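Entry for the shared binder. Reason: the reviewer on the internal report wants the predicted structure included alongside the sequence.
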Amino acid sequence: MDLLPAQEAAKIYHTNYVRNSRAIGVMWGVFTICFAIITVVVFIQPYWIGDSVNTPQAGYFGLFHYCIGNALTSELTCKGSVFDFNSIPSPAFRTAMFFVGTSMLLIVGTMVAFSLFFFCNAGNVYKICAWMQLASAVLMVMGCMIYPDGWNAEEVKRMCGQRTDKYALGNCTVRWAYILAIISILDAVLLALLSFTLGNRQDKLLPDGFEVEGAEWKNKEDPSFME
Protein backbone atom coordinates (compact mmCIF):
# COMPACT_ATOMS: atom_id res chain seq x y z
CA MET A 1 0.00 0.00 0.00
CA ASP A 2 1.46 3.36 -1.06
CA LEU A 3 1.98 5.92 1.63
CA LEU A 4 0.51 9.40 1.17
CA PRO A 5 3.02 12.19 0.57
CA ALA A 6 3.86 14.07 3.76
CA GLN A 7 2.18 17.25 2.49
CA GLU A 8 -1.11 15.52 1.64
CA ALA A 9 -1.15 13.49 4.85
CA ALA A 10 -0.54 16.63 6.91
CA LYS A 11 -3.32 18.44 5.07
CA ILE A 12 -5.80 15.62 5.81
CA TYR A 13 -4.76 15.57 9.46
CA HIS A 14 -5.10 19.33 9.71
CA THR A 15 -8.58 19.23 8.12
CA ASN A 16 -9.77 16.57 10.55
CA TYR A 17 -8.25 18.49 13.45
CA VAL A 18 -10.16 21.64 12.49
CA ARG A 19 -13.40 19.70 11.95
CA ASN A 20 -13.18 17.99 15.34
CA SER A 21 -12.38 21.24 17.11
CA ARG A 22 -15.40 22.92 15.54
CA ALA A 23 -17.68 20.03 16.48
CA ILE A 24 -16.53 20.16 20.11
CA GLY A 25 -16.93 23.95 20.02
CA VAL A 26 -20.55 23.62 18.91
CA MET A 27 -21.18 21.11 21.69
CA TRP A 28 -19.61 23.51 24.20
CA GLY A 29 -21.84 26.31 22.94
CA VAL A 30 -24.99 24.20 23.30
CA PHE A 31 -24.04 23.14 26.83
CA THR A 32 -23.29 26.76 27.73
CA ILE A 33 -26.78 27.79 26.63
CA CYS A 34 -28.28 24.94 28.69
CA PHE A 35 -26.19 26.01 31.67
CA ALA A 36 -27.43 29.60 31.30
CA ILE A 37 -31.02 28.34 31.43
CA ILE A 38 -30.19 26.36 34.59
CA THR A 39 -28.73 29.42 36.33
CA VAL A 40 -31.78 31.52 35.46
CA VAL A 41 -34.07 28.81 36.87
CA VAL A 42 -31.94 28.53 40.02
CA PHE A 43 -32.10 32.29 40.53
CA ILE A 44 -35.83 32.85 40.08
CA GLN A 45 -37.33 29.65 41.55
CA PRO A 46 -38.29 29.88 45.25
CA TYR A 47 -37.58 26.22 45.99
CA TRP A 48 -34.23 26.29 47.77
CA ILE A 49 -35.66 25.04 51.07
CA GLY A 50 -39.17 23.93 51.98
CA ASP A 51 -41.49 22.31 54.47
CA SER A 52 -41.79 18.68 55.45
CA VAL A 53 -44.37 16.57 57.28
CA ASN A 54 -42.91 17.75 60.62
CA THR A 55 -42.83 21.51 60.02
CA PRO A 56 -45.23 23.80 61.93
CA GLN A 57 -46.20 25.60 58.72
CA ALA A 58 -46.22 24.79 55.04
CA GLY A 59 -44.11 26.88 52.69
CA TYR A 60 -40.88 27.32 50.78
CA PHE A 61 -38.02 29.80 50.42
CA GLY A 62 -35.89 30.93 47.52
CA LEU A 63 -33.18 33.54 47.23
CA PHE A 64 -35.61 36.44 47.52
CA HIS A 65 -39.17 35.11 47.20
CA TYR A 66 -40.85 32.99 49.85
CA CYS A 67 -44.27 31.68 50.85
CA ILE A 68 -45.46 30.61 54.32
CA GLY A 69 -48.76 29.01 55.21
CA ASN A 70 -51.33 30.57 57.52
CA ALA A 71 -51.99 28.70 60.76
CA LEU A 72 -55.74 29.31 60.47
CA THR A 73 -56.16 28.69 56.78
CA SER A 74 -54.41 26.51 54.24
CA GLU A 75 -53.49 29.47 52.04
CA LEU A 76 -49.88 30.51 51.50
CA THR A 77 -48.79 34.10 52.03
CA CYS A 78 -46.03 35.04 49.60
CA LYS A 79 -43.57 37.91 49.92
CA GLY A 80 -40.19 38.99 48.62
CA SER A 81 -39.02 40.74 45.48
CA VAL A 82 -35.69 41.06 43.75
CA PHE A 83 -36.35 44.81 43.47
CA ASP A 84 -37.14 45.29 47.18
CA PHE A 85 -34.30 44.26 49.47
CA ASN A 86 -36.36 45.09 52.56
CA SER A 87 -38.81 42.33 51.64
CA ILE A 88 -36.04 39.69 51.76
CA PRO A 89 -36.10 38.12 55.25
CA SER A 90 -32.34 37.83 55.84
CA PRO A 91 -29.18 39.78 54.95
CA ALA A 92 -27.57 36.44 54.10
CA PHE A 93 -30.34 35.77 51.56
CA ARG A 94 -29.68 39.19 50.00
CA THR A 95 -25.96 38.48 49.74
CA ALA A 96 -26.57 35.03 48.27
CA MET A 97 -29.01 36.55 45.79
CA PHE A 98 -26.32 39.04 44.70
CA PHE A 99 -23.70 36.35 44.14
CA VAL A 100 -26.03 33.95 42.35
CA GLY A 101 -27.49 36.80 40.27
CA THR A 102 -24.01 37.95 39.24
CA SER A 103 -23.13 34.35 38.38
CA MET A 104 -26.21 34.20 36.16
CA LEU A 105 -25.31 37.49 34.44
CA LEU A 106 -21.79 36.25 33.72
CA ILE A 107 -23.14 33.16 31.98
CA VAL A 108 -25.58 35.28 29.99
CA GLY A 109 -22.58 37.48 29.12
CA THR A 110 -20.78 34.37 27.88
CA MET A 111 -23.56 33.80 25.38
CA VAL A 112 -23.31 37.44 24.27
CA ALA A 113 -19.57 36.87 23.81
CA PHE A 114 -20.41 34.25 21.17
CA SER A 115 -20.76 37.18 18.74
CA LEU A 116 -17.03 37.88 19.16
CA PHE A 117 -16.26 34.76 17.14
CA PHE A 118 -17.16 36.79 14.02
CA PHE A 119 -14.70 39.57 14.83
CA CYS A 120 -11.89 38.21 17.02
CA ASN A 121 -9.48 35.32 17.19
CA ALA A 122 -11.43 32.19 18.21
CA GLY A 123 -8.78 31.07 20.69
CA ASN A 124 -8.96 34.37 22.56
CA VAL A 125 -12.76 34.28 22.64
CA TYR A 126 -12.75 30.77 24.10
CA LYS A 127 -10.35 31.88 26.83
CA ILE A 128 -12.45 34.95 27.66
CA CYS A 129 -15.53 32.74 27.97
CA ALA A 130 -13.58 30.27 30.10
CA TRP A 131 -12.63 32.94 32.62
CA MET A 132 -16.23 34.15 32.73
CA GLN A 133 -17.50 30.63 33.37
CA LEU A 134 -14.88 30.04 36.04
CA ALA A 135 -15.84 33.29 37.75
CA SER A 136 -19.49 32.24 37.53
CA ALA A 137 -18.66 28.99 39.31
CA VAL A 138 -16.83 30.84 42.11
CA LEU A 139 -19.76 33.22 42.61
CA MET A 140 -22.22 30.32 42.67
CA VAL A 141 -20.10 28.60 45.33
CA MET A 142 -20.17 31.75 47.44
CA GLY A 143 -23.94 32.08 47.03
CA CYS A 144 -24.56 28.46 48.04
CA MET A 145 -22.26 28.76 51.06
CA ILE A 146 -23.75 32.03 52.32
CA TYR A 147 -27.41 31.10 51.84
CA PRO A 148 -27.64 28.77 54.93
CA ASP A 149 -26.34 31.62 57.09
CA GLY A 150 -29.84 33.14 56.80
CA TRP A 151 -31.74 30.13 58.09
CA ASN A 152 -31.99 31.73 61.54
CA ALA A 153 -34.38 34.39 60.21
CA GLU A 154 -37.70 34.61 62.05
CA GLU A 155 -39.69 33.80 58.90
CA VAL A 156 -37.67 30.63 58.36
CA LYS A 157 -38.08 29.60 62.00
CA ARG A 158 -41.81 30.13 61.74
CA MET A 159 -41.93 27.53 58.97
CA CYS A 160 -39.17 25.16 60.07
CA GLY A 161 -39.46 25.35 63.86
CA GLN A 162 -37.44 26.99 66.62
CA ARG A 163 -34.62 24.44 66.34
CA THR A 164 -33.70 26.07 63.04
CA ASP A 165 -30.47 28.07 63.11
CA LYS A 166 -27.60 29.06 60.85
CA TYR A 167 -26.60 26.02 58.79
CA ALA A 168 -29.17 23.96 60.74
CA LEU A 169 -32.42 23.54 58.84
CA GLY A 170 -34.53 22.09 61.65
CA ASN A 171 -37.56 20.24 60.34
CA CYS A 172 -37.34 21.69 56.82
CA THR A 173 -35.69 20.07 53.82
CA VAL A 174 -33.43 21.18 51.00
CA ARG A 175 -35.38 21.53 47.77
CA TRP A 176 -34.42 20.90 44.14
CA ALA A 177 -33.35 24.46 43.24
CA TYR A 178 -30.60 24.42 45.89
CA ILE A 179 -29.41 21.01 44.69
CA LEU A 180 -29.46 22.24 41.09
CA ALA A 181 -27.37 25.27 42.11
CA ILE A 182 -24.73 22.97 43.62
CA ILE A 183 -24.71 20.77 40.51
CA SER A 184 -24.36 23.88 38.32
CA ILE A 185 -21.04 24.65 40.02
CA LEU A 186 -19.56 21.45 38.62
CA ASP A 187 -21.11 22.22 35.23
CA ALA A 188 -19.48 25.66 35.16
CA VAL A 189 -16.06 24.26 36.07
CA LEU A 190 -16.27 21.56 33.37
CA LEU A 191 -17.39 24.09 30.75
CA ALA A 192 -14.55 26.42 31.72
CA LEU A 193 -11.97 23.62 31.42
CA LEU A 194 -13.40 22.63 28.03
CA SER A 195 -13.29 26.25 26.91
CA PHE A 196 -9.64 26.60 27.96
CA THR A 197 -8.87 23.40 26.06
CA LEU A 198 -10.62 24.68 22.93
CA GLY A 199 -8.76 27.97 23.20
CA ASN A 200 -5.42 26.17 23.33
CA ARG A 201 -6.42 23.91 20.43
CA GLN A 202 -7.27 26.98 18.37
CA ASP A 203 -3.79 28.35 19.03
CA LYS A 204 -2.36 25.13 17.56
CA LEU A 205 -4.38 25.33 14.36
CA LEU A 206 -2.07 26.31 11.53
CA PRO A 207 -2.99 29.13 9.15
CA ASP A 208 -4.08 28.36 5.62
CA GLY A 209 -0.84 29.86 4.28
CA PHE A 210 1.25 27.06 5.75
CA GLU A 211 2.28 23.95 3.87
CA VAL A 212 4.44 21.00 4.76
CA GLU A 213 7.69 20.03 3.10
CA GLY A 214 9.18 16.80 4.38
CA ALA A 215 8.34 16.78 8.09
CA GLU A 216 8.34 20.54 8.71
CA TRP A 217 5.64 23.18 8.19
CA LYS A 218 6.77 26.18 6.14
CA ASN A 219 5.04 29.44 5.33
CA LYS A 220 4.47 30.34 1.68
CA GLU A 221 5.06 34.00 2.52
CA ASP A 222 8.40 33.27 4.14
CA PRO A 223 11.19 34.39 1.70
CA SER A 224 13.26 31.40 2.80
CA PHE A 225 10.55 29.02 1.55
CA MET A 226 11.31 27.71 -1.92
CA GLU A 227 9.21 25.22 -3.87
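Summary line for the report: Strands lie at 49-50, 59-61, 66-69, 76-79, 173-174, 210-213, 216-219.
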